[in-house]
Amino acid sequence: AQRRCIHTHKMRHLYLASVLYVFIFLLERTSAAYLRFARRPPRLSLRDDNGIFSSPSSSCQNEGTKTHDGCDDPMYTKEMNGDESDRFDMFELARSWTPGFCASFDSSSLGKGKKKTECQKAYLKNELTVHGLWPSYSEPLSDPAVVLRSIKDKKKCYWPQNCRIPPGYPRNESFRYDEKALPKGEEFERLAPAWYYDGLAEHEWEKHGTCAMWPAKDDATSIGSTGKNVVNPLTQKDFYAGMFHLAKDLGTPEKLSRSAGKKVSLDELKSAFSEISPNLAAFGCDSRCNFVQVVQCFRRPSSSALVSRSSTRNSSSSDSDFIGHPMDCPCVGVRDSRYDNSCESHCADGVYIVDAAAP
């Protein structure tokens, strides 16, 4: 009887051990599946069943009412896991209507009664000037490993910012802000006075330009004469050249310049920009409905679609090739943004185009 009792006791322990082993095995499998899923986070769907990007509808709920945030160095976070699924896929070109900007929130002041140089009469013109070129996501990220680095928005990441040096960046090129990399000449100073006179260039490079250096997912698909994969990395100088080339090509709509000093409807403002691009943009206004900024969006091409900047410079390629083609700015992240598209949310009665010549 005592032996039977001992045998039963051992069998019970073996059974419990087997159940525990199965439980641990299933837990490990479930955890692995979750981690694989987390590497490719769910996104707000702007793609069809075949994974092809489609332009967002012209209709957009909550336009100009949402507050969004970026996340620090998300691509390096993914790179550590051997995952390139979250490389950015869109650029936003933000340009200021400088007279409106300088009339807003005392933004023209540097303190102690001193005006920013771009807001001084000698530099103020009825033209759009460059604020920045911003890498962005057409669909916000939802990866916990990435968005927990964000300060304000713990659920989604709308753009990458403050990125560290990417793999493959040329060793002989500076990754720190380098004023010497900016193109020189009066033409460029006029396109971006705040960059050259008021220190905006360093801020824009560190926050946004550093992230633009990260290559697209298929960055090594070109085959060189050696038969090896070739990467054509972007540099700080390339970034500036492309941004200025695009800003110059787009220019300032004539209708906008002719409207200086007048109040126009929001539809009239949009119509003015349809002269240079039919795609949906975002329009920023201050609390008094002074027009301040326009944001236009561009679909980033894959690296394989680019012509090597080092080997072929011809009439069919340009400095701004890496920025891509115009696209409708997505509703989520841009057109619903209070910062990017505030004219939509509180300027239904019209938008004032401040005149540079106004006192």
Describe the structure.
By secondary structure, the chain is an alpha+beta fold. The chain has twelve helices and eleven strands. Strands 2, 3, 8, 9 and 10 form a five-stranded antiparallel β-sheet that branches. The longest helix is centred in the first third of the chain and has 38 residues. The protein is globular and about 95 Å long. The termini are far apart. About 13% of the residues have low confidence.
Essential attributes:
single chain; 359 residues; alpha+beta; five-stranded antiparallel β-sheet; two-stranded parallel ribbon; 32% helix
Shape: globular
Number of alpha- plus pi-helical segments:
12
Could you tell me the mean pLDDT? 79
Radius of gyration: 26 Å
The arrangement of helices and strands along the chain is HEHEHEHEHHHEEHHEHEEEHHE
How would a textbook summarize the main sheet? 5 strands, antiparallel
Structural class: alpha+beta
Estimate the strand proportion.
5-15%
Provide the helix percentage: 25-40%
- CA-to-CA gap between the ends? 108 Å
